[in-house]
Design goal:
By secondary structure, the protein is an alpha+beta fold. It has helices at residues 15-22, 28-33, 51-63, 91-94, 124-138, 165-170; strands spanning 5-9, 69-74, 77-86, 108-115, 143-146, 174-180, 183-189. It has 6 helices and 7 strands.
């Protein structure tokens, strides 16, 4: 990638950048969800009708001091997003047949990664994940968990918000359980190597 990429935590100061990112072409899924779907249990709506409420709830979360993810910038312009945080923050994961807890380890979950259409195919998603790993490590997180798609045929970009198995493999994640033919739970230990 010949561009400079940096990430910043989503805070009230970077909120407008997330709005601008989600408004770019290719963002219909994120514009409807605002990364709130997995944060709530029960029936949760996404899509155009639910978007204002989801956006308001994410904004309130950010205003309360929670950092729900990182915004990625290419040459200073918002280009991507990765949502991560303590697994208990994502209520819907608890009862998911595919993503339910593997064990009682204290893990952080990566539940969404999104790159605006014009920046796809430039390595932005890989850099976002690397920066998310560094961010989690800086918060003394010992284990990161993800729920990628693992299919022989590529899915439409709009449905790849969990990321692909290869994305996580390249970042050092390994499969810990498979509860679906096309979905896996992968983890990466962030513990320092002891000599």
């Amino acid at each position: 990638m010949g561009h400079d990429l940096e990430t910043r935590p989503l805070t009230p100061q970077t909120w407008a950048d997330l709005e601008a990112l989600f408004d770019l072409p290719g963002g219909s899924m994120v514009r409807g969800c605002w990364c709130m779907y997995y944060r709530r249990s029960g029936k949760v709506s996404v899509g155009a009708a639910a978007a204002p409420d989801n956006k308001r709830q994410l904004c309130e979360l950010v205003d309360s001091g929670v950092v729900p993810g990182l915004v990625g910038y290419v040459d200073g312009a918002p280009a991507g997003w990765i949502s991560l945080g303590p697994r208990p923050d994502y209520a819907k994961l608890q009862r998911s047949p595919i993503m339910k807890p593997v064990d009682d380890l204290d893990v952080w979950s990566v539940v969404c990664t999104y790159v605006a259409k014009r920046y796809r195919g430039q390595g932005v998603q890989h850099r976002l994940l690397q920066d998310a790993i560094r961010y989690a490590r800086g918060r003394k997180v010992w284990m990161l968990e993800a729920y990628p798609v693992d299919k022989p045929v590529r899915s439409q970009d709009a449905f790849m918000f969990f990321g692909s198995r290869s994305l996580y493999e390249r970042a050092g994640f390994t499969e810990v359980v498979r509860r679906s033919p096309t979905r896996v739970v992968m983890r990466r230990s962030l513990r320092p190597a002891f000599r």
